[in-house]
Give the backbone structure.
Amino acid sequence: MKKALLFFLLLACTTSCNKEVQIDIPGYEEQLVVDGRIETGGFPIVLLSKSQNVYAPTDIEAYISSFISDAQVSVSNGSQTVSLSLFPLSSLPLESQKTVAEMLKLNLNELQFLPIQVYSTTDQSIKGEVGKTYNLQIAYNGKNYAGSTSLLTPVALNNLYWKADESNAEYGYSWANLTDPAGDYNGYKWEAKRINITSSGAYLDDLYKRAGYFEDRFFDGLTFEFSVENPLKRKDTTHLEAYKRYYRIGDTVVIKLSRLDKATYDFFDKKSTQLGNGGNPFASPINIPSNIPGALGIWAGISPWYDTLACQP
């Protein structure tokens, strides 16, 4: 009897502490999504789409139908203003096709089958130049949007070399020595691709693969040494699984170190973190910033520096 009474007292205390919580979830509002970039020596490329409701379909048809092809888009560099035209992906210059493939994380041969169009140009006067600021203007659905980005002077590595792993001399990481320019903000993106020639006469990798982003918040003006893993997919079945993030002796790798302004870095860094947290219920929510007021996305300026890494002792 006492046990039954104790049970009902505990039950009463538990239920009396419950409180109904009303959460006012704001309604969905469609927004313009911009994925645009200009790189040193490259033409501006802009992908426009509409944001999707979290409950909207997620199939390929819904994805394709979200792209926008009835906007007016232009880019200016202070002396020239060029209107961008719509290009089917297969009609873009090859280097622009590679850029779009890297933006969409597709293989180059897969790009040809995607029935979307991008805003771009082949006007040489608007190609990316270091030291210039590029202003993006978009008119869509009765609204105007604007973003700005700059192509900063790229930062070169002091040294780049391959170092064999102590446990297996056939595999190793890429190592670099960098002196960060003092006093200026510097965001960086590290990318790589292997240019070994295959039996078919092609490069082993068509596109660059991103290894990561970092900024000089904690090393402004310092010289330091660091290692970077191999971000590329293994296409060689003889490459040991335990060393999948290593380069193999004999690899020839082009390293692309790009300097980014703060808005560009913040966008890509937080987007990368959000993607990495996907599906983790304990991860903190992240708001991805934009440099285009009223829209989502980024107008990014990318200033690369290149060097070749020979994976030899």
